[in-house]
């Protein structure tokens, strides 16, 4: 049972079928003038229309990229280098995806200043903090739409209104939200918006950047001039076609999917919190993606939980340090004010359209069973009282490691 | 990522639990890394570890190393058990991923603390 759709989602059958001809007989280069090339070009443009429609943009405002990370890089560096004569101050939040955070850190080495806004306990930024952070030399505000770990949705319409009023370019990393909830670049006054195909049942290695008409960015990838001279390189035609098909399907099914996923998510949250003592929900209860359920469980560690759930055929994710590459606990959960020990027992389940109400009982029972078995072994859990124990530091040796 | 042996000891941990009125008890770990281990030992008059159990809060490698050290140390004289190193435990598990070597492989330290506790109790 796959419940890690925030990491990636399976390619839909219709998407796969749409791609196949462009891997085989329709293999033309879209830059070629003969019919094979024109056919590929037409397919790319159809995909562009579908992606634009999904976010209420104009077709010419969509640039295809290799994915969300490239889109974020292109937007942030592209604006920074274009507008550096106007100012060198950027505002973002502490819970952005690494594609945004590492890009901002890189720009700091190039003389830019970045304000990283904190978030409240529910994972949502404080609009007053944003207003206070704005300076005369602020050139860019970059705020994610929905967080990849806790699913919390930011008030991007409000942020967009403020950015517009102050004349500051506004970028939104919408990798987790596009295709899952309504995204309207016009309504939210968004200037640049990043999308990734593989989060909405399209193929990996393809994404898009929306660039509002009239917004100028510095070109990062030079070459043959594809994608309106902004992103050179022969287009990934099969990937773009698949992405376009996935966008079309997402657009046609958006309301139905939201309704279905919310029902499953709410039932899942209720069942898990009901079946597992000392279980908590991370992030905002209401302002969250319809497919995100992010939990934490006292006295256990997330990697063990993930491995044991995997053994039962259930795939989820954790923000635990032990499963990360640098042994640091999730910075997103830390930003909510949680202690390391609380973060270690985190579990993110991100539902997909293939999940069903029937899955909820299976998954919640499995979680209760696995959490219970890990707690049986945990020195931080009182098995007789079925509650967590405070660590007695007098009996505890912090060794050098 | 993990060897089959690590996965086996993680999935089917040996000797988990606690020993009431244990001869020695040691807890080590670091909350930042998220691993905390307690080893309990029961030592007989010949200073041989007759029983050993563990409780561990930690990742797959942490649970596997805890389980493995109980298997290695059971039946050993305490002074012999003191010589078990973190590397011995990792080797017995057919290796651990490099990043897991330090934070999740504290079982030898926990055992050493338990033996230290036993020896201190003997002196009292």
Keywords, please?
heterodimer; A: 401 residues; alpha/beta; seven-stranded mixed beta sheet; 11 helices; B: 124 residues; alpha+beta; Sufe protein. Chain: A; three-stranded antiparallel beta sheet; globular; NIF_FeS_clus_asmbl_NifU-like (chain B); iron ion binding (chain B); NIF_FeS_clus_asmbl_NifU_N (chain B); iron-sulfur cluster binding (chain B)
Shape of chain A: globular
Name the overall outline of chain B.
globular
What's the main sheet of chain B like? 3 strands, antiparallel
Note poorly predicted spans of chain A: none
* Greatest interface: A-B, 31 and 38 residues
Enumerate the strands of the largest sheet of chain B in spatial order, edge to edge or round the barrel.
1-2-3
What does the average pLDDT of chain B come to? 94
What would you note in describing this structure?
The complex is a heterodimer of chains A (401) and B (124). In chain A, helix 6 (156-166) links the parallel strand 4 and strand 5 (169-173). Chain A has 401 residues and is of the alpha/beta class. In chain A, the strands form three sheets. In chain A, strands 1-7-6-5-4-2-3 form a seven-stranded mixed sheet, sandwiched between helices. In chain A, strands 8-9-10 form a three-stranded antiparallel sheet. In chain A, strands 11-12 form a two-stranded antiparallel sheet. Helices cover 39% and strands 13% of the residues of chain A. The mean pLDDT of chain A is 96. In chain A, 51% of the residues are buried. Chain A has eleven helices and 13 strands. Chain B has 124 residues and is α+β, with helices and mostly antiparallel strands. Chain B has one domain: Sufe protein. Chain: A. In chain B, 44% of the residues lie in helices and 20% in strands. Chain B has six helices and three strands; from the N terminus they run H-E-E-E-H-H-H-H-H. Chain B has helices at residues 4-11, 60-73, 78-81, 86-92, 100-103, 107-123; strands at 24-30, 35-43, 49-57. Chain B has a three-stranded antiparallel sheet. In chain B, helix 1 crosses helix 2 (60-73). The longest helix of chain B is centred in the C-terminal third of the chain and has 17 residues, at 107-123. The termini of chain B are far apart. The interface between A and B is medium-sized, with 31 and 38 residues. Strand 13 (396-397) of chain A pairs parallel with strand 1 (24-30) of chain B.
């Amino acid at each position: 049972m796959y419940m890690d759709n925030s990491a990636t989602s399976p390619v839909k059958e219709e998407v796969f079928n749409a791609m196949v001809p462009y891997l085989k007989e329709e293999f033309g280069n879209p830059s070629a003038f003969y019919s094979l090339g024109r056919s590929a070009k037409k397919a790319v443009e159809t995909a562009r229309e579908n992606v634009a429609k999904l976010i209420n943009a104009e077709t010419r405002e969509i640039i295809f990229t290799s994915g969300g990370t490239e889109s974020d890089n292109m937007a942030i560096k592209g604006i920074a280098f274009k507008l550096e004569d106007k100012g060198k101050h950027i505002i973002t939040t502490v819970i952005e995806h690494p594609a945004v955070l590492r890009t901002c850190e890189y720009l700091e080495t190039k003389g830019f200043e970045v304000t990283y806004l904190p978030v409240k306990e529910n994972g949502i930024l404080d609009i007053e903090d944003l207003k206070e952070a704005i300076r005369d030399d602020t050139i860019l505000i970059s705020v994610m739409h929905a967080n990849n770990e806790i699913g919390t949705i930011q008030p991007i319409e409000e942020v967009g209104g403020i950015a517009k009023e102050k004349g500051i370019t506004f970028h939104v990393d919408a990798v987790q939200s596009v295709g899952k909830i309504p995204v309207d670049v016009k309504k939210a006054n968004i200037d640049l918006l990043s999308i990734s195909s593989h989060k909405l049942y399209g193929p990996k290695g393809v994404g898009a950047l929306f660039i509002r008409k009239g917004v100028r960015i510095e070109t990062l990838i030079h070459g043959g001039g594809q994608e309106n001279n902004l992103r050179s390189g022969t287009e990934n035609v099969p990937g773009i076609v698949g992405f376009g098909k996935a966008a079309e399907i997402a657009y046609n099914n958006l309301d139905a999917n939201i309704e279905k996923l919310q029902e499953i998510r709410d039932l899942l949250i209720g069942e898990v919190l009901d079946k597992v003592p000392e279980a908590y929900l991370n992030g905002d209860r209401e302002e969250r993606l319809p497919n995100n359920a992010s939990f934490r469980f006292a006295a256990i560690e997330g990697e063990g939980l993930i491995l044991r759930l995997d053994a039962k055929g259930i795939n989820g994710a954790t923000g635990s340090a032990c499963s990360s590459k640098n042994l640091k606990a999730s910075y997103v959960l830390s930003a909510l004010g949680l202690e390391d020990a609380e973060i270690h027992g985190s579990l993110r389940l991100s539902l997909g359209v293939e999940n069903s109400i029937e899955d909820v009982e299976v998954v919640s029972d499995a979680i209760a069973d696995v959490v219970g078995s890990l707690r049986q072994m945990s020195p931080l859990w009182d098995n007789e009282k079925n509650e967590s124990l405070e660590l007695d530091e007098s009996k505890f040796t912090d060794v050098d490691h | 990522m993990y060897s089959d042996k690590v996965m086996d000891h993680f999935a089917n941990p040996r000797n988990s639990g606690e020993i009431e009125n244990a001869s020695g008890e040691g807890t080590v770990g670091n909350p930042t890394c998220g691993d905390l281990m307690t080893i309990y030992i029961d030592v007989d008059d010949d200073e041989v570890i007759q029983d050993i159990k563990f409780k561990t809060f930690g990742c797959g490698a942490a649970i596997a190393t805890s389980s493995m050290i109980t298997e290695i140390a059971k039946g050993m004289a305490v002074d012999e058990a003191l010589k078990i190193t973190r590397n011995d435990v990792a080797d017995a598990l057919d290796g651990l991923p490099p990043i897991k070597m330090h934070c999740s492989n504290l079982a030898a330290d926990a055992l050493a603390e338990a033996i230290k506790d036993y020896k201190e109790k003997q002196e009292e």
